[in-house]
Automatic annotation (TrEMBL):
Protein location: Nucleus
Sequence ranges of Basic residues compositional bias: 1-10
Region: Disordered, residue numbers: 1-24
Full protein name: DNA topoisomerase 6 subunit A
Record-linked InterPro entries: Spo11/TopoVI_A, Spo11/TopoVI_A_N, Spo11/TopoVI_A_sf, Topo_VI_alpha, TopoVI_A, TOPRIM_Topo6A/Spo11, WH-like_DNA-bd_sf
Organismal lineage: Eukaryota, Viridiplantae, Streptophyta, Embryophyta, Tracheophyta
Name of the coding gene: LOC107791525
SUPFAM superfamilies documented for this protein: DNA topoisomerase IV, alpha subunit
């Protein structure tokens, strides 16, 4: 008798949960959703082929790309640059660098590659010119510091580099910008310079990899996850039984999914850069995608900046277009939160935010970008966002309950294959 009462009470509680959580009643058994994910993984593996390069495309425009170089080649290239400078000075022609231009006018979106690349325009950075003398000095100092790092075969952060000569650099944005210039001058990736960004991104879920020889199991790293190594050369031997990679924009959503062990219910790898994507997270995501052959689904805020973040992972950033071949992850699918989700999932008005004039301008600017125009579904979603002038963060789903994201929203999205 007592057992019957418990069963009736449990059934009643279950019905109450379904009523309290919108659309939960639409969810099918997890086994059905898992089969959908297995099909997605299979199709992703089948469609993956050799990654196209600039040479494959055969552009009429001359473009510039950097590659990973060993330390001895970086040292040799620095030596060559300095030798040419010395010859120029001795010839009475002055002291200057030929620096590739990283301005928007010198960038090109290539649809076949689905990423932004750098064209071949460059400018002269002369020591004798009042407007460029300081940048020329900073460039020389950065080259000297990089040579020291290569000689000692050690890595430092961009912050360490800045503090070696604070009075000269004045602001880290200046030393960071010249560091990118130096990468272009030497024709190598920033990683090849032995300068890394501080640890920012984290990963959790169904992934095992070696970090400088130590095997890391990301299912046993707690809700905080494993910090993504700033030096991608330390990472190797990736193994996973995941069905997909879930790329999350913000730390708050990541923490929710990690604490709920979402990756155990639906085998996946969850990764976040906690906002704007850093180089290490972009390199790590690409490495996972290419080595594990897994589909990547992105969860970002429903605002123009969420889509910009997604585009940086997928098509590259304009600031580092010279290294887009190494930093971009092809075929990332936009899972949510999309503008169309706000009405579809009945997000309450009090959880929607009015777009500012700057938001609207950013949205309209994105609509003019070639990488957005290429995807009609993105255009449709952006147009809806600009028209309604409404935005919402991932946390808006918490209005239905703190675990609504992991218990209803994402499972239903996966069940319906609702991504673009």
């Amino acid at each position: 008798m007592a057992d019957k009462k418990k069963r009736r009470r449990a059934a009643h509680d279950s019905d109450s949960d379904s009523d309290a959580l919108p659309f939960k009643s639409k969810l099918k058994p997890d086994s059905v959703i898992l089969q959908t994910l297995k099909n997605l993984k299979a199709s992703s593996a089948a469609s993956s082929s050799k990654t196209l390069t600039l040479a494959d495309v055969g552009l009429s425009t001359t473009c510039r790309e950097v590659t990973d170089l060993p330390i001895d080649e970086v040292q040799y290239n620095i030596g060559s640059v300095m030798l040419n400078l010395a010859r120029s000075i001795l010839a009475g022609e002055g002291f200057s660098f030929n620096v590739p231009s990283r301005s928007s006018a010198n960038q090109l979106y290539v649809p076949e590659l689905d990423r932004i690349i750098l064209k071949d325009k460059s400018s002269v950075r002369a020591f004798s010119n009042v407007s460029t003398v300081r940048k020329t000095t900073i460039t020389t100092r950065i080259l000297q510091l990089i040579h020291q790092l290569c000689t000692k075969n050690i890595h430092v952060t961009k912050r360490d580099l800045f503090y070696t000569d604070v009075k000269l650099f004045q602001d880290q944005t200046q030393s960071d910008a010249v560091l990118d210039d130096v990468s272009c001058i030497l024709g190598c990736t920033r990683s090849s310079l032995n300068v890394v960004a501080a640890e920012k991104g984290v990963v959790v879920g169904r992934l095992i990899f070696s970090d400088d020889g130590d095997m890391i199991d990301c299912t046993k790293m707690g809700m905080g996850g494993k910090a993504i190594p700033p030096n991608i050369d330390r990472v190797g031997d990736m193994q996973s039984d995941a069905l997909f990679i879930l790329l999350v924009e913000k730390d708050a959503a990541y923490m929710r999914l990690a604490e709920d062990r979402f990756y155990n219910r639906f085998p996946c790898i969850i990764v976040t850069a906690k906002g704007q994507p850093d180089v290490a997270t972009r390199l790590f995501l690409r490495k996972m995608k290419m080595e594990l052959n897994l589909p990547v689904l992105a969860l970002v805020d429903s605002d123009p900046y969420g889509l910009k973040i997604l585009s940086v992972y997928g098509c590259g950033s304009k600031n580092m277009s010279y290294d887009s071949a190494n930093l971009t992850t092809p075929d990332i699918k936009w899972l949510g939160i999309r503008p169309s989700d706000l009405d579809k999932y009945k997000i309450p008005d009090q959880c929607r935010l009015p777009m500012t004039e700057q938001d609207i301008k950013t949205g309209k600017d994105l609509l003019e970008e070639d990488f957005v125009k290429k995807n009609p579904a993105w255009v449709e979603e952006l147009n809806l966002m600009v028209k309604t002038k409404q935005k919402a963060e991932i946390q808006a789903l918490s209005s239905f309950g703190f675990q609504y994201l992991s218990e209803v929203y994402l499972p239903l999205k996966l069940q319906e294959q609702d991504w673009v």
